[in-house]
Amino acid sequence: MQNLRERTARQIADTKQFAVQGVVKSFIEVADNLDLAIGSVPEKELEGGEDVDVERALTLLKRLRDGVVMTESIMLKLLEKEGVRKYDPQGEPFDPNLHNAMFRVPNSGVKSGHVAHVIKNQTIRPRPQATANPQPLRRSTAAPQPSVELAYSTGWSGASLHGSIAGQEWQTLGLKPVVSGAGAWHHLNLPVPAQGNPPTPLLEFVMTNGASGWDKPTEGGHYTIAAPGRYCLQHGRVESVAHSRRLLLVTDLDDTLVGDDEATAAFRDWWLARAMPAGARLVYNTGRALGLFEDLLCAKRGLLPEPDLLLSAAVRDAAYAALAAVGRDAMHFRPPAEQNEHKVTCGVHVGALARVAQDVRERLARHGVQLRLVASGVGDWRFLDLVPMAAGKRQAMDFAAETLGFRHEDIVAAGDSGNDVDMLEGAPAAIVVANAQPDLLEWVERSRSPGVIRTRGSRAWGILEGLERLGCGFQPPTL
């Protein structure tokens, strides 16, 4: 463990020193071209006067526009090189491997399970979405169809399986990238018959990047799988991971996964080396507004894995907007102890109460979010609670499990404060890190649940310790 800590510390230092150098250098060309575009309109040409040469002005305007368009083209190419590209999924079926759902929208006029609203236009990762769903979530009681779940490690940006199921005609099936896999992992869930037709294997296949790249066994021939189950393909070998626990990790961020860079980096290494081959998925259940989460992800780039699903505080964004509209003399946020991830409590002057309530309702209604506003108190200042319908960390956690295709018993939750009680109480296995706040420790003492693990390690070290004690097999990765 000490060697892992020392190696992680060196990796963090190198990341901080060198991570942005290449990106910054590449953007020097953008700055140069922008300077040329600005210089195409001499400053003296901007001096006012009674006589304006319209033809000359149009010429200068066209020159400026051409320069800006060229600069934009160069910038977009550089961004695409770094993995940033424009993408408009509105109307597409919701795909948790490509999209992050923020909330479900009732009566949106969009087919159930499809993207109804795009909250961000450009991101450096799969973007948050709102999905259409006019009906509540329902758990299926039908027996699951046999399938082959394949986790594939590759340096290709895209990967496909070319193969035959139970001796049938060969076909090509695309794999989906796993967001928390840092671009190195892809996934396929393939329905198959309950068994093959001996001596024909259940699944015979090779991998391809869709161009000239092919991945076949080093000894020749094709990869084969004999029975339904979970498998991992890496380094030219197919291995069963059926013995590994299915894991959906739902964790808080601040002072749980984040707060100790060495611990966060160690978690990242374990996640990529151990959790990814077993088909695990990562969900962040945070009280951070979306913008603050993006800031954190940028600040911890290279240390903090990107989540397969983000459950964030959409309501808080609307409250901040209302605060900006009425001013701090008429509205303020109540102390942190009165807040949680799915409830925002404000103090609002009675004279501004109606305006604030209307403003918040209208802002969230534009995204189809149904909201309960609960006003209480007497006198000049009132309490105003902003609560989405059917909101709560437990409901959000169950939504994540169903969306990502996991059973309830696959969930492991981790947290550090009383705000996490709802989530931890609803999880079959819960990790309470050593730096947990007193209100959460009081709940641990009261509940005495056998599913709750109180760790000796703090923050991400505690998460790793808890996962090891749950049989998820923490081992330092071989680098």
Automatic annotation (TrEMBL):
InterPro entries assigned: GrpE, GrpE_CC, GrpE_head, HAD-like_sf, HAD_sf, Ig-like_fold, SPP-like_dom, Sucrose_Phosphatase
Listed GO biological process terms: protein folding
Matching SUPFAM superfamilies: Coiled-coil domain of nucleotide exchange factor GrpE (SSF58014), HAD-like (SSF56784), Head domain of nucleotide exchange factor GrpE (SSF51064)
PANTHER family, alphabetized: SUCROSE-PHOSPHATASE 2-RELATED
Gene3D superfamilies named among the record's database cross-references: 3.90.20.20, HAD superfamily/HAD-like, Head domain of nucleotide exchange factor GrpE, Immunoglobulins
Organism, as annotated: Auxenochlorella protothecoides
Residues annotated as domain Sucrose phosphatase-like: 246-312, 331-469
Keywords for this protein: Chaperone, Hydrolase
Signal peptide: none
Protein name, as recorded: Protein GrpE
Biased composition (Polar residues): 121-134
Family membership noted in the UniProt record: Belongs to the GrpE family.
Domain of life of the native organism: Eukaryota
Chain segments carrying region Disordered: 121-146
Family matches, as Pfam families: GrpE (PF01025), S6PP (PF05116)
MF annotations from Gene Ontology: adenyl-nucleotide exchange factor activity; hydrolase activity; protein homodimerization activity; protein-folding chaperone binding
